[in-house]
């Protein structure tokens, strides 16, 4: 059963929150972020203001998939992750 966009946004912020709190993550989490964001960007019910945030998070997830030092990548984006979570929470 597919999940609606509200649950997708919740899952997205959950993964980002884990990255923020733990300063680490996995390539599969980055891949999952990418899939969630692709689905959300294709959804016409998503607020236009959150789409820019999703695009930024998508770039972060893509870079994370291919970096050799994922934990360093996550750590270097701590401020952005915090802001993304705040921004997404405003629209979910």
Task: Write out key terms for the chains shown.
mainly alpha, globular, 92 residues
Structure report:
With 92 residues, this protein is mainly α. It has one domain (5-91). It is built from five helices and no strands. Helix 1 (5-22) packs antiparallel against helix 5, helix 2 (27-41) packs antiparallel against helix 3 and helix 3 (48-66) packs antiparallel against helix 5 (78-91). The longest helix has 19 residues, at 48-66. The model has no long low-confidence stretch (mean pLDDT 94).
Brief characterization of the structure:
With 92 residues, the protein is an all-alpha fold. The protein is 79% helix and 0% strand. Helix 1 packs antiparallel against helix 2.
Strand count, sense and closure of the main sheet?
A: none
Mean model confidence by pLDDT = 94
| SSE series | HHHHH
Number of domains: 1
Taken from the alpha-carbon principal axes, the silhouette is globular
Radius of gyration: 12 Å
**Share of residues in helices:** over 70%
Beta-strand content estimate: under 5%
Structural class: mainly alpha
Q: What is the number of strand segments?
A: 0
What is the helix tally?
5
Low-confidence spans? none
């Amino acid at each position: 059963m597919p999940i609606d966009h509200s649950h997708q946004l919740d899952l997205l912020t959950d993964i980002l929150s884990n990255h923020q709190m733990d300063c680490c993550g996995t390539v599969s989490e980055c891949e999952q972020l990418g899939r969630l964001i692709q689905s959300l960007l294709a959804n016409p019910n998503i607020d236009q203001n959150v789409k820019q945030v999703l695009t930024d998070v998508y770039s972060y997830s893509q870079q994370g998939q291919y970096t050799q030092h994922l934990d360093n990548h996550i750590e270097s984006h701590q401020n952005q992750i915090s802001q993304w979570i705040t921004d997404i929470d405003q629209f979910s």
